[in-house]
Amino acid sequence: MTATTGATPSAHPERPGxxxxxxxxxxxxxxxxxxxxxxxxxxxxxxxxxxxDQRVHAALRQIGTLHDARHxxxxxxxxxxxxxxxxxxxxxxxxxxxxxxxxxxxxxxFSHTExxxxxxxxxxxxxxxxxxxxxxxxxxxYPDLTVQQVWKDQRVSEAxxxxxxxxxxxxxxxxxxxxxxxxxxxxxxxLEEASA
Length: 196
What we know:
By secondary structure, the protein is α+β, with helices and mostly antiparallel strands. Helices cover 47% and strands 15% of the residues. The chain has nine helices and four strands. The chain has a four-stranded antiparallel sheet, with helices on one face.
């Protein structure tokens, strides 16, 4: 877990899970209610189909902290694992899900697990803590980038690529008045990164 020195104590108790930079991992193992594995599988298939639904992507953008998530049914249809990577506070992460359409879908899947109180229930955080297991190792390829920063970098890259493809940009590159700027190491690096 990433240690912070001189930080203000959290209003929430320490939560399980490891962090790397700004990202945290969240892994929950649950028991599937007897006879519910097929229904859970159907709900997971609907959830997978819903990932193409603009409302789901809008909700994920509203949450704005989820890097990735996955559900797995295992141990001969008796157990379920949910694992995700997110930015920021564990408590805020759970609260944010409860306030969006994603929370409703989350409830549907987890309703097939033993004792799940519902994502809006005041006791849901205690339930998650009791079912959460921290990873032995958690490593991020981009530990200093939040989801928001990744999205911004993508938008900037797309906009820059669009500029590179214009005749005006090509003309600017050929204009002798811009030679001094184009010769700078920073501009050369920018062009190298754009062509990689």
